[in-house]
């Protein structure tokens, strides 16, 4: 019979691995690619993200992580809503544009695709695999990132044939 441990170890008692070693290991973790968007009183913003996942289905809630070093990422918090646009295989170039490759202004980035709105007013990418229109229901900061929690208030789906994934520091297409 096993013995129950009553000892507790604080996370600060354990040495952390280096950021480089962590990033290298995480590069083997395949992730869907999304463009996170917002438009509201604080302004308009879109950025490519891969750190996004389902948090709950009742109520439907998504979690997304954003780097704090980009000061304009606070717009997602200030506007209080956002849309997570899950990209199809045909969106690799658009993903690069919203990742900041090409040094385009936000206005010029959004001009590269067709966008509509659902309930919150955040830009919804036409042709995305799925777009999750969310109200911000909570957020906090951890180390280098903001962690946002979004209650899904509307969804738009598409019948795309491929998903866009990021793995081993590169894009890959997955047939659906």
TrEMBL record:
It holds the Pfam family Flavin_Reduct. It comes from Candidatus Tokpelaia hoelldobleri. Keywords: Oxidoreductase. PANTHER family: FLAVIN REDUCTASE (PTHR30466), FMN REDUCTASE (NADH) RUTF (PTHR30466:SF1). This is Flavin reductase family protein. One of its GO terms (molecular function) is riboflavin reductase (NADPH) activity. Residues 26-173 form the Flavin reductase like domain. GO terms for biological process: pyrimidine nucleobase catabolic process. InterPro entries: Flavin_Rdtase-like_dom (IPR002563), NADH-dep_flavin_reductase (IPR050268), Split_barrel_FMN-bd (IPR012349).
